[in-house]
Specification:
11 strands, 3 domains, Rossmann fold, 15 helices, 458 residues, 50% helix, flat, alpha/beta
Length: 458
């Protein structure tokens, strides 16, 4: 969660976090530049353009999410070959690949993952070394003996790279026991303890009901040099893209927000326009053939237009090649089932291969959809499930997608039960929490692999 990173963003976390965020993109680019100069004796403009694209695709690196060496190894190699696959695909499609030295590219693709893994091991050893910890070490106390304070204690103790030594707890009451740490006293004793023991950080995890005690505590702490952080109790909830912002200098806390704000929104929008434009150019002959196939095999329109909910729950029109003998868009819409008699013979083929979805790239260019995002449901289904599944409408904080995280994880097609739909929504919300450009590319590639072997496509 972004807020939790911000919460402890002291000197130690600043260093280790920046190293983990930058090490992959920087090493990928340095390796490319070194090999280019070694083999070609100069650095030309196409390699600089490639490095900019590379940074956009790889930042902030996969190392941040790794829990052990096995996961780190798989994540690093997976991310690398995913990036290489995307660059090769568009390089080949645009004929731009021929501008690069094949010798440079071959060595770069082969050596980079080895360099990344080796650098991760060396950096991990350094970040957990006594020398590093001693340089960035901070002492801290937590005010508030409760679940939130205990959670914060566990996270500090489990992450040695933070360099935080937790001295103990203070609370409104000065008696009691706490696992893994000692109770140092009451809130009235905090200021004296902090000054005598040169405490660097104070985390306040008291509930809002103790407002008067908190204000008195803050007044006492004005005589210290410690950094003070609040740990709001509502952050124990399941939040979406939580972060701190301000309006005219007044701090505000986002508890449910789109991941596509600011620069991230620009990256997402730009990638949608570029990728969808390229794909539409490449598949335009196929679109004509599919349109003829629909028209010649069954009576009715070529395109099926259906009202769906888009960004922020606003109504949009979604395009598909018609695959059924009916075009339902009323208060009741029946989901397609296995061996559904409404599906035409040609419609069965285009549904099985997901070719019926291709006109939605036009939706992407119109700005009503994204290539990757939660799949849009019929309005009648939305109105039904929003009453049955808590948090259902959160998925509309982003534009709906042609493909999504739920679809590549097995939740495509008919949702026979509310539990099945809830599982799909859980994946949609998980996507909102974890989004990155690399994740979008991963979903696109997994979608391509699923087209011809997805048993739930009918």
């Amino acid at each position: 969660m972004k807020y939790q990173q911000h919460l402890s963003f002291n000197k130690s976390l600043n260093h280790s976090l920046l190293i983990k965020m930058l090490i992959d993109p920087v090493l990928m680019i340095i390796t490319l530049y070194f090999l280019t100069i070694y083999f070609e004796n100069k650095l030309t403009s196409q390699y600089i353009v490639l490095s900019i694209l590379l940074f956009a695709l790889s930042f902030p690196g996969r190392w941040l999410n790794s829990k052990n060496f096995k996961n780190e190894f798989l994540d690093t190699f997976g991310q690398w070959f995913l990036i290489v696959g995307v660059l090769f695909f568009f390089g080949y499609a645009t004929d731009y690949l021929n501008r690069f030295s094949h010798q440079v590219i071959l060595f770069w693709v082969s050596l980079t993952p080895i360099i990344l893994i080796t650098s991760h091991l060396m950096a991990s050893k350094y970040l957990s070394s006594k020398h590093y910890i001693s340089r960035v070490k901070k002492t801290a106390v937590i005010i508030g003996v409760n679940n939130l304070g205990n959670q914060l204690q566990d996270r500090i103790n489990s992450n040695t790279e933070l360099g935080i030594e937790l001295k103990g707890f203070f609370d409104v009451l000065s008696e009691g026991t706490i696992s893994h740490a000692q109770l140092l006293g009451s809130v009235q004793q905090v200021s004296n303890y902090v000054k005598k023991n040169t405490i660097d950080i104070i985390y306040i995890a008291l509930p809002p009901s103790l407002h008067s005690e908190i204000m008195l505590l803050l007044d006492d702490l004005k005589d210290t040099t410690a950094s003070i952080y609040f740990v709001p109790h509502f952050f124990m909830a399941d939040l979406i893209q939580a972060r701190i912002d301000d309006i005219g200098g007044m701090p505000i806390v986002a508890v449910c927000e789109t991941p596509f704000s600011g620069f991230d929104g620009f990256v997402k929008g730009l990638s949608d326009v570029i990728i969808s434009s390229l794909i539409l150019c490449l598949i335009s002959p196929l679109l004509i053939l599919l349109g003829l196939g629909v028209k010649l095999t069954s009576p009715g329109p070529i395109l099926f237009k259906q009202r769906r909910y888009g960004l922020d729950g606003h109504e949009i029109i979604v395009y598909k090649f018609r695959s059924m003998t009916v075009a339902e868009d009323g208060e009741t819409v029946t989901q397609a089932k296995m061996d559904d008699k409404r599906v035409t013979r040609f419609g069965k083929f285009i549904r099985k291969t997901s070719l019926d979805e291709l006109p939605q790239f036009i939706n992407v260019l119109q700005g009503t959809m994204s290539i990757v995002g939660p799949r849009p449901h019929a309005i009648s289904h939305n109105e039904m499930y929003r009453k049955l599944i808590k948090g259902y409408m959160i998925r509309h904080k982003v534009k709906p997608g042609i493909t999504g995280w739920a679809q590549v994880n097995g939740f495509r097609g008919e949702t026979e039960t509310v539990d099945n739909m809830k599982a799909r929504i859980d994946y949609d919300i998980d996507y909102l929490k974890k989004w990155s450009l690399g994740m979008d590319i991963k979903i696109i590639l997994k979608t391509v692999l699923l087209i011809f072997k997805d048993s739930k496509a009918y």
